[in-house]
Specification:
It is built from 46 helices and 16 strands. The chain is an alpha/beta fold.
Length: 1018
């Protein structure tokens, strides 16, 4: 093809040069070149490509097409150049098995793995040398190509790749979905907008076309008429050269092109019309057959068109390319409706003769038949659209498949329910869960009317996201009704479909008046699936069985079933079911308190979830890691993981994720001892989401009682007890529900309820209580039982149970829980952890503070640090957020926001600090062996200073703190004023100052943890 000489555009070319230099250095970059048609986007891309090639950089092009091409069309072109061995169009996510279950058992992660393989290929290729990727006409890209583009863009910083896309900026002609993807590309993608050329640049371009310098008046006129659009300038210049006059110049580029088209021969126009309707890049043989012309005649007419600059040049690889997309548009729109429809039909008929069983041209055929006339056109369009939809689904172009299925459903003679099931599956994989649900509901109604039991069953299963049922909606009356009807309609014999329906119905009955039927249904489903040898269905049935025996009495049986499910899923290479099995195993391990195995299970789950790259699965990992961080007392890391879970869960559209984020945040608040009043609204919303279940009512009563809202807590507690404890179902939430109820009973002084809760919990004192599917760890059951016993005056039982809880917490390294259990034990026994109880005074009197500790008394001036210490001393063992300390001292509320000014400590300093800390640890050990306590004290002081600096800069989770974060500013301020207050105390009461230095820790969460039980009077 002939390449145009670029005029002007020095600034955008310099921007691209800078991006290319960064990519060559290993810092991948991306840009999108935007502009109206004719602004020179392709010319600019060609100039970049020439410069890259001259520097030894590999360049690969991909072209998007509006002609109904298969999914990933531009990426296929790129990979053919870079890695011909890469099979972009992999196997589809859903094979169609003989039992009819294929449509609902696909591997949802197959497209994500395809994206990973493309990125891996780019990494490998760019490792051998930098690469430039150019995607032309992004406005015509299929949705699957756009999704892959986003993944590649995100991976670019680690690749030696520059990606440049061109985008025709014509909003009315570009689909909203495409505009949305481009609009949402990260800001790292540089936007380069091409506007019209200046008058001097227009004059230079006219000179190149005319061969002589134009008069100033002529350059001004051309600039005014064209707006500096380079393509328009060329066309007007050629028209001026042909007319030798400056009058009568059309105002629009399309009108100019129409004039030029009119100057070629009629035969040439006819060939161009066929090529325009066929689409840019049309096959010469196809155009020749439809035009009814000989090869020699067609080639002569194509030469004429190229000479008139309507084509980019002679055919390349037997394909016809227009000089500009505008030429094709002008030709096609100039045709009358009848002529255009006739050509579409002729092209479709000719393509059908050569298509055969090859679905590559199915989308193109559907497009032509959809635009053709004739009594059979619509049916033939629908037939080809169905083939195109299935082909797109097999190639993971789910969004494209959805559009094609909708055309296919216009047909009269079609197995409608089957096609609608396939549409629902495509919507599900495209991420349109609500659209998929509506399609499955409509399919079920149609299958019911037509007596199609198997299709009714598949539609009902589809409402719960397929066979694996990773997130099955609860209390779904429609799904339950359809499953019951399907089960009654299916043949009374073994089969994968019948087993799948029984398993799902067992889940659907959870929390309903049919709860008693669940276990038999699940057992029958497992046995039937095993008999028919269907691993995917057997995995789903085992999941239903685990859910039916989710109570604490069946813990060992449930863990064994989940382990069996994992083995079955691994044998069937079913990744979603493997993840579901691991989720079930993990919750059981948490209940057992086997924390090393819990962490190993989280890691195994993460490896599979990372490979699938689907938000539906990946949000569990930060949730569980947040819960584990909370157990160790690392509230900052727990908060960060809650935010990460929320972001991933929102992308997944997961209701479970939202509920579990709420759970993790609630337990973070309760662990910190900070119960924000506005969080009660979140709790109330969660209770309503859970349809005011008994567990939810108990949770609200417990939280409100802890927050000091006894009256409101009592109202929720009474609503719970009006149902009775039997209303708490014996499932995965039974222990949680009993814990909340017992905790609230203590706070609300309800001894009768406390006794009954204790009686029911007694067999499970060694189990840990888990909130939901691991969003929170509430503690070991022995702890609550010990508190209940102490509340009811059974001191001997309380001492035994609380001692058991202390041992469990010590073994699990659960700092906040251990602190509370030791305090509870000390409260009933009068025995402190290491020494006897000590009382002190820390009381404000106007502008002074009266202090008393052991045998000394003192007076200290008022300061904010004294207020901070007073708050901490009043909450021993309870972490308090620095923003709450600021607020307590009269500062702004915790909801204040602020900016971010970067990391507090750079990596070089951090490494130096860590090396010195390691050296000091060795020196301290040697000094202790030498028996030199003074040297030990000096070394410890230096080490503690460095550790505090590291913690201040990076936090407990190892994440760099930023100096502009409001919490970080508060952390520094509180640490400084607490240190100042202790310094003031040291001057008048050194013993108390030493005690506070040892017992008070500052950070984002500050805490007073005395080595002895201390009672402070204020």
């Amino acid at each position: 093809m002939e390449r145009r000489v670029m005029v002007g555009r020095a600034r955008p070319l310099a921007e691209l040069d800078a991006l290319l230099a960064a990519a060559v250095d290993g810092r991948g970059r991306s840009a999108i070149v935007l502009g109206e048609p004719g602004m020179g986007k392709t010319t600019l891309a060609e100039a970049l490509a020439d410069r890259a090639l001259a520097s030894g950089v590999t360049v690969a092009w991909g072209w998007c097409s509006a002609a109904g091409m298969p999914p990933f069309w531009p990426w296929r072109s790129i990979l053919r150049e870079l890695a011909p061995e890469h099979r972009l169009a992999g196997e589809g996510p859903a094979g169609h098995g003989a039992d009819g279950l294929g449509v609902l058992r696909g591997d949802a992660g197959v497209r994500a793995r395809l994206f990973v393989s493309v990125i891996d290929t780019l990494q490998k290729v760019s490792g051998d040398g930098p690469v430039v990727l150019i995607l032309e006409d992004l406005q015509w890209a299929d949705s699957a190509s756009l999704l892959l583009l986003r993944q590649v863009v995100d991976a670019l910083p680690g690749l030696r790749v520059l990606l440049v896309a061109t985008w025709r900026d014509e909003p009315p002609k570009t689909g909203e979905d495409v505009r949305a993807v481009v609009r949402d590309l990260p800001t790292a993608v540089q936007r380069i907008r091409l506007d019209g050329l200046g008058i001097d640049e227009v004059a230079e371009l006219v000179t190149r076309v005319l061969g002589e310098t134009p008069a100033d008046e002529l350059a001004t006129m051309v600039h005014r008429r064209t707006g500096g659009n380079p393509f328009f300038v060329r066309e007007v210049s050629r028209l001026l050269a042909a007319r030798s006059a400056t009058t009568g110049v059309p105002d629009g580029v399309r009108e100019v092109l129409a004039h030029r088209i009119a100057r070629v021969s009629q035969g040439c126009q006819q060939i161009l019309e066929v090529a325009a309707v066929a689409g840019n890049g049309a096959d010469v043989s196809l155009v020749m057959a439809v035009a009814g012309e000989s090869a020699d005649a067609v080639l002569l007419q194509l030469e004429e068109a190229a000479a008139a600059r309507l084509l980019a040049g002679p055919p390349v690889d037997n394909r016809i390319w227009f000089a500009h997309a505008l030429v094709q548009e002008v030709l096609e729109t100039s045709l009358g409706t009848a002529r255009r429809a006739t050509l579409h039909r002729a092209l479709a008929e000719q393509l059908e003769e050569t298509a055969g069983d090859d679905d590559e041209a199915a989308g193109e055929l559907a497009r032509h038949w959809s635009a053709a006339f004739g009594p059979d056109a619509a049916e033939r369009a629908a037939a080809w659209a169905l083939r195109a939809a299935r082909s797109a689904g097999d190639r993971m172009g789910y969004e494209q498949a959805v559009d094609a299925y909708r055309i296919a459903l216009r047909a009269k003679d079609i197995e409608r329910t089957k096609v609608m099931l396939e549409l629902g599956e495509a919507q599900m994989y495209a991420g349109d869960l609500e659209g998929a649900r509506q399609t499955f509901a409509q399919t079920a109604e149609l299958a019911r009317r037509n007596g199609r039991a198997s299709h009714l069953a598949m539609a009902a299963l589809g409402l719960g996201a397929g066979l694996s049922g990773f997130e099955v909606p609860q209390y779904d009356e429609l799904q339950t009704e359809l499953l019951e009807e399907a089960l009654a309609s299916l043949p009374q014999r073994d089969g994968g479909m019948r087993a799948a329906v029984m398993a799902r119905l067992s889940l659907a009955y959870a929390g309903t008046d049919r709860e008693s039927e669940r276990l038999d249904l699940a057992r029958s489903a497992v046995a039937m699936a095993e008999r028919v040898g269907h691993p995917c269905v057997e995995s789903g049935a085992l999941a239903a069985y685990c859910d039916a025996i989710a109570g604490p009495a069946q813990l060992d049986e449930r863990f064994a079933a989940a382990s069996r499910m994992l083995a079955v899923a691994e044998r069937g290479h079913d990744s979603p079911c493997q993840l579901l099995a691991r989720r079930l195993r993990l919750v059981a391990l948490m209940e057992r308190g086997d924390w090393p195995e819990v962490d190993a299970e989280i890691d195994a789950f993460a490896r599979t979830a990372n490979r699938l790259m689907l938000p539906l699965y990946s949000w569990y990992v930060p949730l569980w890691r947040g819960a584990r961080a909370l157990m160790s007392g690392d509230l900052e890391t727990a908060t960060r993981y809650a935010d990460e879970t929320e972001a991933i869960g929102r992308r997944a559209g997961s209701a479970n994720a939202a509920l579990m984020v709420f759970t993790l945040r609630m337990w973070t608040h309760r662990t910190a001892g900070v119960l924000p009043a506005d969080f009660v609204d979140d709790i109330d919303a969660a209770v309503k989401t859970a349809s005011e279940s008994s567990v939810a009512l108990g949770m609200l009563a417990s939280y409100l009682a802890a927050a000091g809202e006894a009256d409101t807590a009592g109202r929720y507690f009474d609503r719970l007890m009006s149902r009775g404890l039997d209303a708490i179902p014996d499932d995965c939430e039974w222990l949680e529900g009993m814990w909340h109820t017992g905790d609230a009973a203590i706070a609300l002084d309800r001894g009768d309820v406390a006794d009954e809760v204790a009686r029911r919990l007694a067999p499970y004192e060694g189990l840990w209580v888990i909130d939901g599917i691991g969003g929170g760890v509430m503690g070991v059951t022995a702890h609550l039982l010990g508190r209940l016993a102490a509340f009811r005056g059974r001191i001997g039982d309380a001492r035994r149970l609380l001692s058991s809880a202390v041992s469990a917490y010590q073994g699990a390294n659960t700092v906040p829980w251990l602190t509370r259990a030791e305090q509870d034990l000390a409260a009933i026994s009068g025995v402190v952890r290491r020494t006897t109880s000590v009382e002190g005074v820390f009381r404000q009197d106007g502008r002074t503070w009266h202090l008393s500790w052991r045998n000394g008394e003192a007076t200290v001036p008022d300061s904010k640090g004294m207020h901070d210490l007073s708050v901490l001393l009043g909450r021993p063992g309870t972490p308090v957020h620095v923003l709450d300390l600021v607020a307590a001292a009269g500062g702004p509320p915790r909801t204040a926001a602020g900016g971010d000014t970067g990391p507090a400590l750079d990596g070089v300093a951090r490494d130096a600090y860590k090396r010195r800390v390691a050296e000091l640890d060795t020196d301290i050990a040697e000094a202790e062996l030498d028996g030199t306590p003074q040297r030990v004290g000096t070394l410890v002081e230096e080490r503690d200073f460095l550790v505090r600096e590291l913690a201040a800069a990076y936090g407990l989770g190892g994440r760099a703190r930023t100096t502009g974060d409001p919490a970080e500013r508060a952390r520094k301020a509180v640490a400084m004023r607490v240190a100042t207050a202790i310094k003031a105390i040291r001057e008048v009461h050194p013993g108390l100052a030493r005690h506070l230095e040892l017992a008070v820790s500052t950070g984002r969460f500050c805490v007073y943890r005395p080595e002895e039980t201390a009672t402070w009077h204020s």
